[in-house]
Amino acid sequence: MPAPSIPPVSAQDFSADILRHLKHSLGKDDSHASLYDWRMSLSLALRDRVVDPWFDSTRKTYEARGKRVYYLSMEFLIGRLIEDVAINLGLDAIAEEALAALGQDYGTVVANEPDAALGNGGLGRLAACFMDSLSTLGIPAYGYGIRYEHGLFEQHFEDGAQMETAETWLAQRHAWEFERPEVSYPIDFGGHVAEEDGKTVWHPGETVMASAYDTPVIGWQAQWANTLRLWAAKPTTAFDLESFNRGDYMGASAPEALARTISRVLYPDDTTDTGKELRLKQEYFFTSASIQDLLRRFLSEDGDLRDLPDYVAIQLNDTHPAIAGPELVRLLIDEHGFEVSQAISTARGCLAYTNHTLLPEALERWPEDLFIRVLPRHHRIIQLIEAAHLASTGSDVRILEHSEVKMGELAFVMAHHVNGVSALHSDLVKETVFADLHRDYPGRIINQTNGITPRRWLYSCNPPLRNLINETIGTSWPDDLQQLDALSAHASDAAFLEQFQAAKDANKARLSNWLKARDGVDLDPSAMFDVQIKRIHEYKRQLMNLLETVALWNDIRDNPNGNWTPRVKIFGGKAAPGYVVAKEIIHLINDVAKTINADPVTRDYLQIVYPENYNVSMAEILIPATDLSEQISTAGKEASGTGNMKFALNGAPTIGTLDGANVEIRDCVGADNFFLFGLTAAEVTARRAEPEYARRAVEASPRLARVLKQIESGAFCRSDPARYSGLVQGLMNHDYFLVTCDFDSYFDTQRMVDTAFADQAAWTRMAALNTARVGWFSSDRTISGYARDIWKTPSMIGSRRSRQDVA
What we know:
single chain; six-stranded parallel β-sheet; 32 helices
């Protein structure tokens, strides 16, 4: 194992560092310091030790004059950073000891840190895992995104309904970032385009400034550090003194307010025209700033822009930054004198696109009139890109069609590689959403199955299991996760399995205590913890999970003396503010929970828990405590999933469909250690072609028909009996995601789960084999694949096998 690139420190010296920051950075002494003061002082003491390897990595990158990766993402769901940084520095035990010497509890201080509200779900958490792996592998990289002032909303429940309030993560100082006021770029919107002296000139109508904030991202054992650069929108003129002196106090601050709107909230509701315009501006804002920044960096090294693809790899995380293609082409033509064809080919040589969805509605499309109003020059550039595409391929696939700008097609055409994120998903990308473009550009679509960072999603979040693994196979697995394969040899060892179960029991007790303290919920840790935590969406089928829960409740009430396996059904996740059906599903879950949890007949066997405001920190408590992982999306709809990987890594067998990375997880852990149910992707397509398939499925399932009748009649909402009639009728008549068709298979498989869980020794072995066999799903392996197959970027530090695989 390579030695860390930071000098060792004693707990005594680290205590002194904390006290120094307490005094000189926070202006407090230890007798008057608040929890916030201690947390900030600890964070700054850790940050101090990140700076040297960060500078060293930057210096080595400039000296090597090699290729850099630029990862553009609308989300970076980084969560809390204290533990992440401390562990990668190798200082977690030292920090805990140092705080204890100062009379402070490390866990309490860590829990005081707010989650950075920079993402919604899997897309943003994947980006955060990738940044961790890029640094661990020593690949020079920048992450680019938006420094959202409020980010995603905070979720609260009022009478079971989701309510949204502003997230306030930046109400306190963010300890990890460095403001870069000298790094600022103008971002233009609107106006008009004119032909002047044989050139096309854009005369913008509005300009804001993009200002940089840098967060260092330290890799495992501090061997390398990269940069997450987030952009905040600021006005060109911060304050209009003339308006203020006229008494127009609001008008004097209007430029600042308008600019801040752009970087204020993640995913503003785009069901209105103004919401659509804001989202388009957000996407262009951070993409343009990032492109301008990387060009400035390249030119500062005396680079020839014709060689740009040899030094710059730009990865588009979904379609949100798809405007990067036209923006890079615009800058090459308008500011650097490139010919159109040369600009397009140079830009394409830099750009790659990750597709994350097979849902047509999730492949962004902008009304063409809106696009012209906001980005008139880019509309013309897209016309040029489309013309070049049509001329070179003879294709009939257009980017501008039906008065829309299709961002998925734009990203595809402008990328040298397009990747799916699981083997099944990549095949379906070729066969469905991009079938015609796959024909036009054979070989452009490849696969890079997603992964997760084991540093956060096992080493940090699951100390009991981490310690057991260390004792069993040694301590060199966190950056070579496939070493977990060695645990398989212990899966028949009764002593090992007893310790494995003890680790799970400790995590379940921790979750139970946390929920009791936070929400007043009493759980039985010996019950099966059956967990589905993810963004609320119809295709993820939280509704099917709930229908099965009601059906189980009915069966227990019908036979209260049966041999039932006690379960706690745990849901977590947020619905987009404008997604009416998803919010109805949340409301229904909470209404059903209110009834079932109060039932004296069933309360010892079945309970529903839905803690509000699910986030990364909650996931770090829930996932290690999970017995059963719910991955039940409609086959062919989940691109990959990463929650499925986190659960399996932490010893939770999966109940799931053959969808996304479930297919590969099942292959790795073995069919006997995975609870499979439901239609395949091909069968889903065939079933939708059958007339009245949903109604017929309900008629064939008395158990399901009974549940739907209860819900529609108001059994779980006596004060408003018709509340869910529309939801039920939607299932009966428009069940696109085949909840009804998969219900019986799901219910029957859940009863197989009951039987399996009742044999605790066999279940523990199954759980242990899940942990042992999913080392392939490390994001280090994923990033090695991107570096080898797409970016052609070498590691700057290589020593582990996973690094040696990098091109």
